[in-house]
Amino acid sequence: EVQLVESGGGLVQPGRSLKLSCAASGFTFSNYYMAWVRQAPKKGLEWVATISTSGSRTYYPDSVKGRFTISRDNAKSSLYLQMNSLKSEDTATYYCARRRPGYNLFDYWGQGVMVTVSS
Amino acid sequence: IQLTQSPSLLSASVGDRVTLSCKGSQNINNYLAWYQQKLGEAPKLLIYNTNSLQTGIPSRFSGSGSGTDYTLTISSLQPEDVATYFCYQYNNGWTFGGGTKLELK
User: Which end of chain A has fewer beta carbons closer than 10 Å to its terminal beta carbon, N or C?
Assistant: First the structure.
């Protein structure tokens, strides 16, 4: 069974940093692109970052480019999101998601972790 | 590409045939998926490539469309289908629609 379990969320002040983690199991992690998707309270979904199988390629929307960094450790089957210079508009539930091979869509998601940016 | 879903709120009765709409600002070339999100849960993939049913999803769910206009149909609404449904395009970038909240009448 595919499982994705996020951790590392919490309350953080504007301008500070936070690092999220995602522990994957039930599939060969190193064979899959992985991503982070977020959902602001009572809002829609927004793709945040994607990383290739080896970690050599990463992709971001303009809203987080230069502030967020996605990375992975295939030996630990773990995905990470380093978030710097956080803003109030980054407040959201962050989901770790697996990308379906050959498609730019996400077939399994974690339960999500809440990040609140507030002073 | 911007995605506009309608209606934003839909009330229907058990057994009803339900149709949800998703319209793109440009041609999506059938790279359109649908997700179901129940309250407090992660999104679940229902349909991909416009009309391909994800493994394990009941056959009462179906998708159709082309160009800029796409539809998710539930042939006979069940109580467990109460959720918010998001469309998602992966033809040019990766964007989600604003969602349609489906409730029981």
Answer: N
Please give the biggest Cα pair distance in chain B: 37
> Cα(A30)–Cα(A55) distance, rounded to whole angstroms?
9
Contact A104 B54 (CB under 8 A): no
- What residue type is assigned to position B83 of the chain? A
Question: What gap in Å lies between CA B61 and CA B102, rounded to an integer?
Answer: 14
Q: In whole angstroms, what is the distance from residue A49 CA to residue A109 CA?
A: 14
Locate the chain B residue with the closest alpha carbon to A50.
B94
Q: Are A109 and A22 within 8 A, CB to CB?
A: no
pLDDT in tens, A18-51: 999 999 999 999 999 999 999 998 888 899 999 9
